[in-house]
TrEMBL record:
Family of the protein in this entry: Belongs to the cysteine-rich repeat secretory protein family. Plasmodesmata-located proteins (PDLD) subfamily.
Lineage of producing organism: Eukaryota, Viridiplantae, Streptophyta, Embryophyta, Tracheophyta
GO CC, one annotated term: plasma membrane
GO biological process, alphabetically ordered: plasmodesmata-mediated intercellular transport; transport of virus in multicellular host
The protein's name in its UniProt record: Gnk2-homologous domain-containing protein
């Protein structure tokens, strides 16, 4: 009888620990830096007039990707060129300056697979994740390059997103302008990266790491003007140009926009980043439902055990 009672007490303690583990708040997970923001692939691929150009391209690209991923353990930016008798490919990756080296490597390691999947054999491509990006372009295929359709790779404005929620307060414009002015002024100190916080308005600006300082400021200024002009009072916005980006978020006083702040590029990109969002939400619902089922089962077992005693 004593043995049975002891086993019941141990079972109760185990159930209590498991239930407590479900109820206590877990540690905040690291942000998903590998969430895709957008991709841009050239329509022209490596085919004729070179019989072996396609396979050569695959080998060069694979070799370049391996080199980029290996360097992401040591630095947040790296540019390299790989070539052979058929030409060369230049590529680089860049991680956000405010993420850890481990997160940078983890983010970059996922880029080659996505690039190969979405931009298979493209002569030029850009894949932008929330925490890192990859770009490459073939430099030694003059016959093919002459046939690149203008605008296939949008070297100016590559991506724009404006949220459907707008700011309610009249202070929004003033806070936005102050934050944008600060990130522009701090670019030199941050070596191409800066951020600012103004009463709930957070803004960030970033340039390619090897970009000249003056060109970086000009690029960011252009991105800021696009954000102001096209996103208006949207509480969140992203503007990606060829060599720089500006992102912002206002965390106070929001409402649905009456006229809508969504841009053409946002609607265009919903099939890219939007699918990831919906899949993530479905996973959250499934995991949450599973956890709730386990919790209810454990409580039921505990009640039955108590009733038997």
């Amino acid at each position: 009888m004593e043995t049975s009672t002891m086993l019941c007490h141990r079972a109760d303690r185990l159930i209590l620990l498991i239930i407590t583990g479900f109820l206590l708040p877990s540690a905040e997970p690291n942000p998903d830096f590998a969430t895709m923001v957008y991709k841009d692939c050239a329509n022209n691929t490596f085919t004729n007039p070179y019989v072996d150009a396609a396979s050569s391209h695959d080998q060069m690209l694979a070799s370049m990707f391996d080199e980029l991923v290996s360097h992401s353990l040591q630095s947040k930016f790296y540019r390299t060129t790989r070539g052979d008798d058929h030409g060369s490919i230049t590529g680089f990756y860049q991680c956000k300056r405010d993420i850890t080296a481990e997160d940078c490597h983890g983010c970059v390691a996922k880029l080659p697979e996505i690039s190969n999947s979405l931009c298979s054999r493209s002569m030029a491509a850009k894949v932008q994740f929330s925490g890192c990006s990859l770009r490459y372009i073939a430099d030694s295929f003059p016959q093919e390059k002459d046939h690149l359709t203008p605008g296939v790779i949008r070297y100016e404005e590559e991506h724009r997103f404006c949220s459907s929620e707008c700011a309610e307060t009249g202070m929004f414009d003033e806070l936005r302008d102050q934050a944008f002015e600060e990130v522009e002024n701090e670019l030199e100190i941050g070596h191409g990266y800066s951020s600012a916080e103004k009463e709930g308005f957070h803004a960030e600006a970033e340039c390619e790491e090897d970009m000249e300082e003056m060109k970086c400021r000009e690029c960011v200024s252009a991105a800021v003007e696009i954000a102001k002009d096209r996103c208006e009072k949207a509480i969140r916005g992203e503007v990606y140009l060829k060599q720089c980006s500006v992102t912002y978020e206002y965390r106070e006083h929001r409402r649905e926009c009456e006229s809508g702040c969504e841009s053409e590029h946002q609607r265009e990109g919903e099939g890219e980043g939007g699918d990831h969002f919906h899949i993530s939400k479905q996973m959250e619902v499934m995991l949450g439902g599973g956890a709730a089922f386990v919790l209810i089962t454990l409580i039921f077992v505990a009640v039955i055990a108590a009733a038997r005693r």
